[in-house]
Amino acid sequence: TIAGSLEKHLSETVTFWTYLAVRENALDLYGFLQKEELEILKSDYHTKKATELGLNHSMACIHNKARELGIATKVGDLTHDEHAFGRITLESCYWAGTFAGDGTCSEKGIQLSMNDEECVLEFKKFLKYTGNGINMTPAQTKFDIRRQRFITTQNHYKFSLRSRQIVKDLNDIWNIIPRKSTILKPPNITNIEHCLSYIVGYIDANCTIGIYDNYLRFATCGSYDIVKWINDILGIQNKIAQRGKIYVSTASGYEAKDIL
User: Fold this and answer.
1) Does this model's pTM top 0.70?
2) pLDDT, tens digit, for every residue of 204-216?
């Protein structure tokens, strides 16, 4: 036992290690040693991310201390617009198109994942979500085995929200379902302005626009049904090519300019 082991060394100085570093001048077990740190936490916790507070503590310690102080927002206190995708407007059409390109949904909630932080923040604003909900994966350099070279990624932002009603509306109105990439169907809308707004959102999230060999080029990719629907709306006559499990349609030169 520990007591028996210590008894053999009663006349010696013994260092006893625990899982917690307890200091006589500690304000609490979360390592907040300065009152100034607590003031920063109280004033900025709801306006900045934990990583932006300038506190030399782990995110777990920061959030745990916020709970202890009673300033942490509980899940039940957060609000959002449950019917944001239940109303067919130009705005909801745009975000449905964006989500169709870069979003995922499950039975209980949704997630939008993009490199564009501003777009993710605007999506959060569209849903009128009062919490944070955004996680950022910083850029990193890693070795690509397939390409046999180092590549540098961009900062990546994810917004997550639990809402069965939003999932239901995405399914019923917009035909957005789990694992949709290769089977996505066009939305259940017919108004041409609504269709174009949806397509703009889809282009922003899931299409390629660039200059290749001095020619403007525009490429749409996704399921066959969604690519064909976009082509029909935009009047693109080019053939749809299959690339693995997805389909691609391209336009270049004056045709791409007219579309855009």
Assistant:
1) no
2) 888 777 777 777 7
